[in-house]
Amino acid sequence: MINIVVLDGHTMNPGDLSWEPLEVLGKLKVYDQTLPHQVLERASEAEVVLTNKVVFDEKIFAQLPKLKFISVTATGYNVIDVDAANKHGVIISNVHGYAANSVAQHVFAMILEMTNRIVAHNHDVHAGGWQASEYWSYNLFQTQELAGKTIGIYGFGQIGQKVADIALAFDMKVIANHKHPKRDQREGVTFVSFEKMMAESDFVTLHAPLTADNQGIVNKKSLGLMKQTTCLINTGRGGLVVEADLKDALESGKIAGAGLDVLSEEPPKDGNILIGVKNCLITPHNAWATRESRGRLLAESAKNVKAFLKGNPRNKIGK
Question: What are the chain's domains?
Fold first, then answer.
């Protein structure tokens, strides 16, 4: 029976899902979390490994001769040295599309909080504000409709497309910056340059994978193109944003607000310069993590393992 090891299973399944789809495929061992110094010991007998954040580089691959397959429990696979995996004959797969609905929902949860300020009004009512008011209706802040506003989507993969669907349902104008505008053109969406998107949007939401080319693409220069009333949403990767520049833009009023589900370091053990900044919503990288999304991720990961065992790998990365 093949040995299957899950190195960081807690985020995918904190206990509300069943490991049965993997248990039927081999001898399964699940670790909630694995630190770098624990990888070799825990994966030493594994032919198959599932991981999300554990780094696999040349040094690790060289010391795991039994390892034949890694299924990354995510779409991004930057933790894996794919060239080293190819060198050592290890097949790599990932999972696509499992969190599109959940992440798009989170994007609009942030946008709606910024426009409607539900939390602040709820707190005020519970603190006695409505009881003390002489008016039957009041606003603590100016609220606004989404209809007619422009949303700029950076990256137009499955998540970006789902965000566009929701935005169009709100009667928003949708513009996007994307590497493949001809391939992914659709009614209601206008593809524009990155600079034009930043300048014209009322909301900018980031959904492109992090690469060497777009590291820090949201910086002092690009933030300077935005309107003072614009809000930035980042549920992609923290490295897309120069955090010091975003902090300055928020504190100086250059932009109206930000909603972040990702930071440059996660978790922010030593703090982060954006924590505590006014008009900056921060959630703990959980946009993807609805139960439904995690269930799809586990199911698709099991399908990856099953396909590998049958000699026909799916979602294969690299050679």
Answer: 3-98+291-317 (3.40.50.720), 100-282 (3.40.50.720)
